[in-house]
Protein backbone atom coordinates (compact mmCIF):
# COMPACT_ATOMS: atom_id res chain seq x y z
CA UNK A 1 0.00 0.00 0.00
CA UNK A 2 1.15 3.50 -0.81
CA UNK A 3 1.47 5.31 2.52
CA UNK A 4 2.06 8.77 1.07
CA UNK A 5 -0.69 11.24 2.00
CA UNK A 6 -2.76 12.34 -1.00
CA UNK A 7 -5.11 15.31 -1.38
CA UNK A 8 -8.39 13.47 -1.74
CA UNK A 9 -10.02 10.05 -1.92
CA UNK A 10 -13.52 9.56 -3.27
CA UNK A 11 -14.51 6.38 -1.44
CA UNK A 12 -17.41 3.95 -1.50
CA UNK A 13 -18.43 4.59 -5.11
CA UNK A 14 -19.16 2.59 -8.22
CA UNK A 15 -16.56 3.48 -10.85
CA UNK A 16 -17.98 3.59 -14.36
CA UNK A 17 -15.96 3.30 -17.56
CA UNK A 18 -17.09 2.29 -21.05
CA UNK A 19 -16.00 -1.23 -20.14
CA UNK A 20 -18.19 -1.63 -17.09
CA UNK A 21 -18.88 -0.76 -13.49
CA UNK A 22 -16.90 -1.76 -10.38
CA UNK A 23 -17.32 -0.81 -6.73
CA UNK A 24 -14.32 1.22 -5.66
CA UNK A 25 -12.56 4.48 -4.98
CA UNK A 26 -10.44 7.14 -6.67
CA UNK A 27 -7.36 8.75 -5.15
CA UNK A 28 -6.45 12.26 -6.31
CA UNK A 29 -3.30 14.26 -5.77
CA UNK A 30 -2.12 17.49 -7.37
CA UNK A 31 -5.25 17.61 -9.54
CA UNK A 32 -4.59 14.19 -11.08
CA UNK A 33 -5.98 10.74 -10.50
CA UNK A 34 -3.21 8.74 -8.84
CA UNK A 35 -5.02 5.45 -8.16
CA UNK A 36 -8.30 3.65 -8.61
CA UNK A 37 -9.27 0.42 -6.90
CA UNK A 38 -10.87 -0.94 -3.79
CA UNK A 39 -11.44 1.31 -0.80
CA UNK A 40 -8.88 -0.73 1.16
CA UNK A 41 -6.19 -0.11 -1.46
CA UNK A 42 -6.43 3.69 -1.28
CA UNK A 43 -3.59 5.72 0.23
CA UNK A 44 -4.29 7.93 3.26
CA UNK A 45 -5.85 11.27 2.25
CA UNK A 46 -6.23 14.77 3.65
CA UNK A 47 -9.90 14.64 2.68
CA UNK A 48 -12.26 11.75 2.01
CA UNK A 49 -15.54 12.18 0.14
CA UNK A 50 -17.96 9.34 0.79
CA UNK A 51 -19.72 8.66 -2.51
CA UNK A 52 -22.37 6.77 -0.58
CA UNK A 53 -22.56 4.00 -3.16
CA UNK A 54 -23.25 6.44 -5.98
CA UNK A 55 -21.71 6.24 -9.43
CA UNK A 56 -18.38 7.91 -10.19
CA UNK A 57 -17.89 8.84 -13.84
CA UNK A 58 -15.43 11.00 -15.80
CA UNK A 59 -16.72 14.54 -16.33
CA UNK A 60 -18.74 14.98 -19.51
CA UNK A 61 -17.14 16.77 -22.47
CA UNK A 62 -19.43 18.93 -24.59
CA UNK A 63 -17.73 19.73 -27.89
CA UNK A 64 -20.50 22.02 -29.18
CA UNK A 65 -21.24 25.03 -27.01
CA UNK A 66 -21.96 28.70 -27.83
CA UNK A 67 -20.87 30.76 -24.86
CA UNK A 68 -21.70 34.11 -26.56
CA UNK A 69 -18.78 36.18 -25.29
CA UNK A 70 -17.36 38.38 -26.67
CA UNK A 71 -20.27 40.25 -28.18
CA UNK A 72 -23.46 38.79 -26.75
CA UNK A 73 -22.99 38.88 -22.98
CA UNK A 74 -26.68 39.60 -22.51
CA UNK A 75 -27.44 36.01 -23.61
CA UNK A 76 -24.64 34.19 -21.76
CA UNK A 77 -21.21 34.81 -20.25
CA UNK A 78 -18.25 32.53 -19.63
CA UNK A 79 -19.15 32.72 -15.94
CA UNK A 80 -22.79 31.74 -16.42
CA UNK A 81 -22.19 29.07 -19.07
CA UNK A 82 -19.44 27.30 -17.17
CA UNK A 83 -21.50 27.44 -13.96
CA UNK A 84 -24.41 25.81 -15.79
CA UNK A 85 -22.04 23.23 -17.26
CA UNK A 86 -20.41 22.40 -13.92
CA UNK A 87 -23.79 21.89 -12.27
CA UNK A 88 -24.83 19.73 -15.20
CA UNK A 89 -21.78 17.44 -14.83
CA UNK A 90 -19.76 18.88 -17.73
CA UNK A 91 -16.07 19.47 -17.02
CA UNK A 92 -14.81 20.49 -20.49
CA UNK A 93 -16.50 22.53 -23.22
CA UNK A 94 -15.42 23.54 -26.70
CA UNK A 95 -16.72 27.01 -27.57
CA UNK A 96 -17.90 27.96 -31.05
CA UNK A 97 -16.45 30.96 -32.95
CA UNK A 98 -19.65 32.85 -33.93
CA UNK A 99 -19.03 35.56 -31.37
CA UNK A 100 -18.44 39.24 -32.11
CA UNK A 101 -15.73 39.58 -33.14
CA UNK A 102 -15.73 36.06 -34.55
CA UNK A 103 -12.83 33.83 -33.52
CA UNK A 104 -11.23 34.12 -36.95
CA UNK A 105 -7.64 35.20 -36.23
CA UNK A 106 -4.84 34.12 -33.91
CA UNK A 107 -5.37 37.37 -32.03
CA UNK A 108 -9.09 36.64 -31.58
CA UNK A 109 -8.25 33.17 -30.22
CA UNK A 110 -5.83 34.68 -27.70
CA UNK A 111 -8.34 37.40 -26.75
CA UNK A 112 -11.13 34.87 -26.20
CA UNK A 113 -8.90 32.70 -23.98
CA UNK A 114 -7.95 35.82 -22.00
CA UNK A 115 -11.61 36.81 -21.65
CA UNK A 116 -12.70 33.32 -20.63
CA UNK A 117 -9.91 32.36 -18.22
CA UNK A 118 -10.85 34.56 -15.23
CA UNK A 119 -14.52 33.53 -15.54
CA UNK A 120 -14.32 29.82 -16.30
CA UNK A 121 -15.15 27.21 -13.66
CA UNK A 122 -14.36 24.26 -15.93
CA UNK A 123 -11.75 23.62 -18.60
CA UNK A 124 -12.43 24.83 -22.11
CA UNK A 125 -11.22 24.88 -25.67
CA UNK A 126 -11.84 27.49 -28.31
CA UNK A 127 -12.87 26.85 -31.90
CA UNK A 128 -11.37 28.80 -34.78
CA UNK A 129 -13.59 29.88 -37.68
CA UNK A 130 -12.88 28.82 -41.26
CA UNK A 131 -13.61 31.51 -43.87
CA UNK A 132 -12.61 32.42 -47.40
CA UNK A 133 -10.27 35.15 -46.19
CA UNK A 134 -8.43 33.49 -43.31
CA UNK A 135 -6.87 30.29 -44.68
CA UNK A 136 -3.37 31.68 -44.04
CA UNK A 137 -4.47 32.34 -40.47
CA UNK A 138 -5.51 28.74 -39.67
CA UNK A 139 -2.07 27.50 -38.58
CA UNK A 140 -1.41 30.62 -36.46
CA UNK A 141 -4.83 30.14 -34.84
CA UNK A 142 -3.91 26.56 -33.94
CA UNK A 143 -0.61 27.79 -32.48
CA UNK A 144 -2.52 30.43 -30.49
CA UNK A 145 -4.61 27.67 -28.92
CA UNK A 146 -7.53 26.84 -31.23
CA UNK A 147 -8.49 23.32 -30.14
CA UNK A 148 -10.52 22.64 -33.29
CA UNK A 149 -12.07 24.47 -36.23
CA UNK A 150 -15.67 25.18 -37.19
CA UNK A 151 -16.93 25.12 -40.73
CA UNK A 152 -20.31 26.71 -41.41
CA UNK A 153 -22.18 25.35 -44.39
CA UNK A 154 -25.72 26.67 -44.68
CA UNK A 155 -25.25 29.58 -42.26
CA UNK A 156 -26.89 32.95 -42.88
CA UNK A 157 -25.02 34.64 -40.03
CA UNK A 158 -23.02 37.56 -41.50
CA UNK A 159 -20.44 37.21 -38.70
CA UNK A 160 -19.47 33.73 -39.93
CA UNK A 161 -20.30 33.51 -43.63
CA UNK A 162 -20.08 30.16 -45.41
CA UNK A 163 -16.93 29.76 -47.47
CA UNK A 164 -17.29 28.49 -51.05
CA UNK A 165 -16.42 24.88 -51.76
CA UNK A 166 -13.03 25.80 -53.23
CA UNK A 167 -12.05 27.58 -50.04
CA UNK A 168 -13.48 24.75 -47.92
CA UNK A 169 -11.34 22.20 -49.75
CA UNK A 170 -8.17 24.30 -49.47
CA UNK A 171 -8.82 25.05 -45.79
CA UNK A 172 -9.26 21.36 -45.06
CA UNK A 173 -6.07 20.50 -46.94
CA UNK A 174 -4.26 23.14 -44.87
CA UNK A 175 -5.67 21.88 -41.55
CA UNK A 176 -4.73 18.31 -42.49
CA UNK A 177 -1.07 19.47 -42.47
CA UNK A 178 -1.04 20.43 -38.79
CA UNK A 179 -3.89 18.25 -37.54
CA UNK A 180 -7.03 19.53 -35.91
CA UNK A 181 -10.59 18.26 -36.30
CA UNK A 182 -13.05 20.36 -38.31
CA UNK A 183 -16.58 20.41 -36.92
CA UNK A 184 -19.08 21.02 -39.68
CA UNK A 185 -22.53 22.55 -39.63
CA UNK A 186 -23.56 20.42 -42.59
CA UNK A 187 -26.37 21.98 -44.59
CA UNK A 188 -26.46 23.00 -48.25
CA UNK A 189 -26.41 26.79 -48.44
CA UNK A 190 -28.06 26.98 -51.87
CA UNK A 191 -31.03 24.84 -50.88
CA UNK A 192 -31.56 26.83 -47.69
CA UNK A 193 -31.42 30.22 -49.43
CA UNK A 194 -33.63 29.15 -52.31
CA UNK A 195 -36.26 27.63 -50.04
CA UNK A 196 -36.26 30.53 -47.61
CA UNK A 197 -36.96 32.98 -50.45
CA UNK A 198 -39.82 30.87 -51.76
CA UNK A 199 -41.34 30.18 -48.35
CA UNK A 200 -41.13 33.82 -47.25
CA UNK A 201 -42.60 34.97 -50.55
CA UNK A 202 -45.55 32.68 -49.81
CA UNK A 203 -46.06 34.57 -46.55
CA UNK A 204 -45.29 31.64 -44.27
CA UNK A 205 -43.62 32.33 -40.94
CA UNK A 206 -44.43 29.40 -38.67
CA UNK A 207 -42.31 26.57 -37.27
CA UNK A 208 -43.29 24.27 -40.12
CA UNK A 209 -41.93 26.87 -42.57
CA UNK A 210 -38.57 26.64 -40.77
CA UNK A 211 -38.64 22.85 -41.08
CA UNK A 212 -39.60 23.01 -44.76
CA UNK A 213 -36.69 25.38 -45.43
CA UNK A 214 -34.21 22.99 -43.81
CA UNK A 215 -35.23 19.99 -45.91
CA UNK A 216 -33.64 16.61 -45.19
CA UNK A 217 -31.74 16.72 -48.48
CA UNK A 218 -29.97 19.93 -47.43
CA UNK A 219 -28.17 18.16 -44.61
CA UNK A 220 -27.79 14.80 -46.32
CA UNK A 221 -26.04 16.43 -49.29
CA UNK A 222 -23.66 18.41 -47.07
CA UNK A 223 -22.73 15.35 -44.98
CA UNK A 224 -21.96 13.50 -48.20
CA UNK A 225 -19.83 16.35 -49.58
CA UNK A 226 -17.87 16.87 -46.38
CA UNK A 227 -17.11 13.15 -46.10
CA UNK A 228 -15.75 13.28 -49.65
CA UNK A 229 -13.64 16.39 -48.91
CA UNK A 230 -12.29 14.70 -45.78
CA UNK A 231 -11.41 11.59 -47.77
CA UNK A 232 -9.53 13.63 -50.37
CA UNK A 233 -7.71 15.98 -48.00
CA UNK A 234 -7.12 13.68 -45.02
CA UNK A 235 -8.61 16.36 -42.76
CA UNK A 236 -10.44 14.84 -39.75
CA UNK A 237 -14.06 16.03 -39.68
CA UNK A 238 -16.87 15.97 -37.17
CA UNK A 239 -20.52 16.19 -38.19
CA UNK A 240 -22.20 18.63 -35.82
CA UNK A 241 -25.74 18.18 -34.48
CA UNK A 242 -26.92 15.32 -36.68
CA UNK A 243 -30.68 15.71 -36.93
CA UNK A 244 -31.71 13.48 -39.82
CA UNK A 245 -31.99 9.71 -40.07
CA UNK A 246 -31.21 9.85 -43.79
CA UNK A 247 -27.62 10.94 -43.01
CA UNK A 248 -26.92 7.75 -41.08
CA UNK A 249 -26.14 5.46 -44.06
CA UNK A 250 -23.72 8.12 -45.38
CA UNK A 251 -21.94 8.33 -42.03
CA UNK A 252 -21.72 4.54 -41.91
CA UNK A 253 -20.38 4.39 -45.45
CA UNK A 254 -17.74 7.07 -44.79
CA UNK A 255 -16.52 5.22 -41.70
CA UNK A 256 -16.40 1.96 -43.66
CA UNK A 257 -14.21 3.67 -46.25
CA UNK A 258 -11.82 4.72 -43.51
CA UNK A 259 -12.67 8.42 -43.55
CA UNK A 260 -11.64 10.08 -40.25
CA UNK A 261 -15.18 11.22 -39.57
CA UNK A 262 -16.99 11.44 -36.25
CA UNK A 263 -20.52 12.63 -35.53
CA UNK A 264 -22.62 14.00 -32.70
CA UNK A 265 -26.28 14.41 -32.03
CA UNK A 266 -28.06 16.44 -29.35
CA UNK A 267 -30.83 15.73 -26.83
CA UNK A 268 -33.40 17.82 -28.73
CA UNK A 269 -33.09 15.54 -31.76
CA UNK A 270 -33.44 12.46 -29.55
CA UNK A 271 -36.26 13.48 -27.25
CA UNK A 272 -38.35 15.98 -29.24
CA UNK A 273 -40.08 16.08 -32.60
CA UNK A 274 -42.37 18.47 -34.42
CA UNK A 275 -45.18 16.71 -32.53
CA UNK A 276 -43.76 18.32 -29.39
CA UNK A 277 -43.71 21.82 -30.83
CA UNK A 278 -46.71 22.93 -28.83
CA UNK A 279 -45.42 21.49 -25.58
CA UNK A 280 -41.98 23.01 -26.20
CA UNK A 281 -43.55 26.45 -26.54
CA UNK A 282 -43.96 26.58 -30.32
CA UNK A 283 -41.48 28.92 -31.94
CA UNK A 284 -38.92 28.57 -29.11
CA UNK A 285 -38.28 25.08 -30.51
CA UNK A 286 -36.58 26.78 -33.46
CA UNK A 287 -33.02 25.50 -33.86
CA UNK A 288 -30.71 24.91 -36.82
CA UNK A 289 -30.83 22.22 -38.08
CA UNK A 290 -34.47 21.81 -37.08
CA UNK A 291 -36.05 19.26 -34.81
CA UNK A 292 -37.75 17.17 -37.50
CA UNK A 293 -40.88 15.09 -37.79
CA UNK A 294 -41.44 12.05 -35.59
CA UNK A 295 -39.50 9.12 -37.04
CA UNK A 296 -36.00 10.61 -36.91
CA UNK A 297 -35.40 10.40 -33.15
CA UNK A 298 -35.59 6.60 -32.94
CA UNK A 299 -32.95 5.87 -35.59
CA UNK A 300 -30.72 8.68 -34.23
CA UNK A 301 -30.93 7.21 -30.73
CA UNK A 302 -30.12 3.73 -32.05
CA UNK A 303 -27.15 5.14 -33.98
CA UNK A 304 -25.86 6.86 -30.83
CA UNK A 305 -26.34 3.70 -28.76
CA UNK A 306 -24.46 1.61 -31.33
CA UNK A 307 -21.60 4.11 -31.69
CA UNK A 308 -22.32 4.97 -35.32
CA UNK A 309 -22.98 8.46 -33.98
CA UNK A 310 -19.96 8.79 -31.73
CA UNK A 311 -21.08 11.24 -29.10
CA UNK A 312 -23.71 13.37 -27.45
CA UNK A 313 -23.20 17.15 -27.49
CA UNK A 314 -25.73 19.92 -26.89
CA UNK A 315 -25.30 22.87 -29.29
CA UNK A 316 -25.82 24.95 -26.14
CA UNK A 317 -27.08 28.28 -27.55
CA UNK A 318 -28.92 30.53 -25.09
CA UNK A 319 -31.03 33.53 -26.06
CA UNK A 320 -33.16 35.89 -24.00
CA UNK A 321 -36.88 35.09 -23.66
CA UNK A 322 -37.77 38.09 -25.87
CA UNK A 323 -35.48 36.76 -28.59
CA UNK A 324 -37.06 33.29 -28.37
CA UNK A 325 -40.72 34.31 -28.13
CA UNK A 326 -41.37 36.06 -31.41
CA UNK A 327 -44.54 35.82 -33.49
CA UNK A 328 -42.57 35.24 -36.69
CA UNK A 329 -40.27 32.23 -36.97
CA UNK A 330 -37.84 34.33 -39.05
CA UNK A 331 -37.30 36.65 -36.08
CA UNK A 332 -37.14 33.83 -33.49
CA UNK A 333 -33.54 33.27 -32.42
CA UNK A 334 -32.45 29.67 -33.09
CA UNK A 335 -31.14 27.50 -30.26
CA UNK A 336 -31.46 27.10 -26.50
CA UNK A 337 -29.28 26.10 -23.52
CA UNK A 338 -28.15 22.47 -23.19
CA UNK A 339 -25.12 21.99 -20.93
CA UNK A 340 -27.12 21.82 -17.72
CA UNK A 341 -29.83 19.43 -18.92
CA UNK A 342 -28.06 16.96 -21.22
CA UNK A 343 -26.71 14.59 -18.57
CA UNK A 344 -30.06 14.50 -16.76
CA UNK A 345 -31.89 13.68 -19.98
CA UNK A 346 -29.43 10.94 -20.92
CA UNK A 347 -29.39 9.45 -17.41
CA UNK A 348 -33.15 9.25 -17.65
CA UNK A 349 -32.58 6.92 -20.60
CA UNK A 350 -30.18 4.91 -18.46
CA UNK A 351 -32.79 4.68 -15.72
CA UNK A 352 -35.31 3.50 -18.31
CA UNK A 353 -32.93 0.79 -19.54
CA UNK A 354 -32.53 2.18 -23.07
CA UNK A 355 -28.74 2.48 -22.62
CA UNK A 356 -26.31 1.54 -19.86
CA UNK A 357 -24.25 3.90 -17.75
CA UNK A 358 -21.05 2.58 -19.42
CA UNK A 359 -22.69 3.43 -22.78
CA UNK A 360 -23.29 6.95 -21.54
CA UNK A 361 -19.67 7.33 -20.37
CA UNK A 362 -18.52 6.22 -23.81
CA UNK A 363 -20.70 8.72 -25.71
CA UNK A 364 -20.39 11.69 -23.32
CA UNK A 365 -16.84 11.37 -22.00
CA UNK A 366 -14.51 8.99 -23.82
CA UNK A 367 -15.62 9.47 -27.44
CA UNK A 368 -15.42 13.30 -27.45
CA UNK A 369 -12.02 13.16 -25.72
CA UNK A 370 -10.71 10.70 -28.31
CA UNK A 371 -12.08 12.62 -31.29
CA UNK A 372 -10.61 15.96 -30.21
CA UNK A 373 -7.19 14.71 -29.07
CA UNK A 374 -7.88 15.02 -25.34
CA UNK A 375 -7.84 11.34 -24.41
CA UNK A 376 -6.88 10.04 -21.88
CA UNK A 377 -6.12 13.35 -20.13
CA UNK A 378 -9.87 14.07 -20.31
CA UNK A 379 -12.74 11.60 -20.49
CA UNK A 380 -11.19 8.75 -18.50
CA UNK A 381 -10.57 7.60 -14.93
CA UNK A 382 -7.04 6.41 -15.70
CA UNK A 383 -4.23 7.14 -13.23
CA UNK A 384 -2.10 10.08 -14.35
CA UNK A 385 -4.98 11.96 -15.96
CA UNK A 386 -6.86 15.09 -14.91
CA UNK A 387 -9.22 14.39 -12.00
CA UNK A 388 -12.33 15.60 -13.82
CA UNK A 389 -14.94 13.53 -12.04
CA UNK A 390 -18.69 13.57 -11.55
CA UNK A 391 -20.70 11.86 -8.86
CA UNK A 392 -24.02 10.72 -10.25
CA UNK A 393 -27.12 9.96 -8.22
CA UNK A 394 -29.24 7.62 -10.31
CA UNK A 395 -32.12 7.93 -7.85
CA UNK A 396 -32.40 11.73 -8.02
CA UNK A 397 -35.70 12.56 -9.67
CA UNK A 398 -36.43 16.04 -10.95
CA UNK A 399 -38.37 18.25 -13.32
CA UNK A 400 -36.55 20.52 -15.78
CA UNK A 401 -37.48 24.17 -15.23
CA UNK A 402 -35.91 26.97 -17.25
CA UNK A 403 -36.11 29.20 -14.18
CA UNK A 404 -33.79 26.80 -12.33
CA UNK A 405 -31.08 26.86 -15.00
CA UNK A 406 -27.92 28.92 -14.54
CA UNK A 407 -27.65 30.21 -18.10
CA UNK A 408 -28.71 33.81 -18.66
CA UNK A 409 -30.89 32.82 -21.60
CA UNK A 410 -32.86 30.03 -19.95
CA UNK A 411 -35.78 29.24 -22.28
CA UNK A 412 -35.64 25.45 -22.67
CA UNK A 413 -37.74 23.18 -24.89
CA UNK A 414 -37.48 20.56 -22.14
CA UNK A 415 -39.54 22.69 -19.76
CA UNK A 416 -41.58 20.47 -17.44
CA UNK A 417 -39.88 17.24 -18.48
CA UNK A 418 -39.38 14.69 -15.70
CA UNK A 419 -35.86 13.29 -15.30
CA UNK A 420 -34.27 10.47 -13.28
CA UNK A 421 -30.59 10.66 -12.37
CA UNK A 422 -28.34 13.71 -12.15
CA UNK A 423 -24.88 14.97 -11.32
CA UNK A 424 -24.62 15.77 -7.62
CA UNK A 425 -20.94 16.71 -7.44
CA UNK A 426 -18.49 17.89 -10.11
CA UNK A 427 -14.72 18.01 -9.74
CA UNK A 428 -12.35 19.70 -12.17
CA UNK A 429 -8.70 18.76 -11.78
CA UNK A 430 -9.37 17.48 -8.27
CA UNK A 431 -11.30 20.48 -7.01
CA UNK A 432 -15.03 20.35 -6.24
CA UNK A 433 -16.58 23.10 -8.37
CA UNK A 434 -20.28 22.21 -8.04
CA UNK A 435 -22.21 20.34 -5.39
CA UNK A 436 -25.93 19.69 -5.07
CA UNK A 437 -26.81 22.21 -7.75
CA UNK A 438 -24.63 25.01 -6.38
CA UNK A 439 -21.26 26.44 -7.40
CA UNK A 440 -18.68 25.98 -4.64
CA UNK A 441 -15.44 27.14 -6.34
CA UNK A 442 -14.12 30.48 -7.52
CA UNK A 443 -14.49 31.51 -11.13
CA UNK A 444 -11.12 31.34 -12.83
CA UNK A 445 -10.38 27.74 -11.84
CA UNK A 446 -11.11 26.63 -15.40
CA UNK A 447 -8.19 26.52 -17.80
CA UNK A 448 -7.79 26.69 -21.54
CA UNK A 449 -6.91 23.28 -22.94
CA UNK A 450 -3.99 24.88 -24.71
CA UNK A 451 -2.51 26.23 -21.48
CA UNK A 452 0.74 24.59 -20.43
CA UNK A 453 0.28 22.18 -17.51
ZN1 LIG B 1 -24.03 25.36 -32.87
TrEMBL record:
Organism domain of life: Bacteria
Recorded hits in InterPro entries, A to Z, give: Amidohydro-rel, DHOase/Allantoinase_Hydrolase, Dihydroorotase_CS, Metal-dep_hydrolase_composite, Metal_Hydrolase
Cofactor field: Zn(2+)
The biological processes this protein is annotated with in GO are:
purine nucleobase catabolic process
GO cellular component entries: cytoplasm
| One term of GO molecular function | metal ion binding
Question: Which residue intervals define the domain Amidohydrolase-related in the entry?
Answer: 56-433
For the keyword Transmembrane helix, the answer is no
Among Pfam families, the record links this protein to: Amidohydro_1
Q: Keyword check for Phosphoprotein, yes or no.
A: no
Q: Which UniProt keywords apply?
A: Hydrolase, Metal-binding
Q: What does this protein do?
A: Catalyzes the reversible cyclization of carbamoyl aspartate to dihydroorotate.
Q: Which family does it belong to?
A: Belongs to the metallo-dependent hydrolases superfamily. DHOase family. Class I DHOase subfamily.
Q: What is this protein called?
A: Amidohydrolase-related domain-containing protein
Organism source for this protein? Bosea vaviloviae
Amino acid sequence: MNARLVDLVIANGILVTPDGMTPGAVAIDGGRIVATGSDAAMPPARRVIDAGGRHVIPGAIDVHVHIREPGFSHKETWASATAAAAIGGVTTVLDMPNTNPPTATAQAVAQKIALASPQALIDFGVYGYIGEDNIAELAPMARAGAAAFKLYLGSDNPLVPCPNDGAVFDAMAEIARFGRRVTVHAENTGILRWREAQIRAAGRDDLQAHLDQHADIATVEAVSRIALFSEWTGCPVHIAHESCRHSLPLIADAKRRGVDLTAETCPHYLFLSMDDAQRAGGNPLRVKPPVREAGHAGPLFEALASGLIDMISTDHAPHLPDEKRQASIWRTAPGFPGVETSMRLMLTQVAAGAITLPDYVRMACEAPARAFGLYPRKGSLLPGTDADIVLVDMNAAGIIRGADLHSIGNVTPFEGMATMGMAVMTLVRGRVVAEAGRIVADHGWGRALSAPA
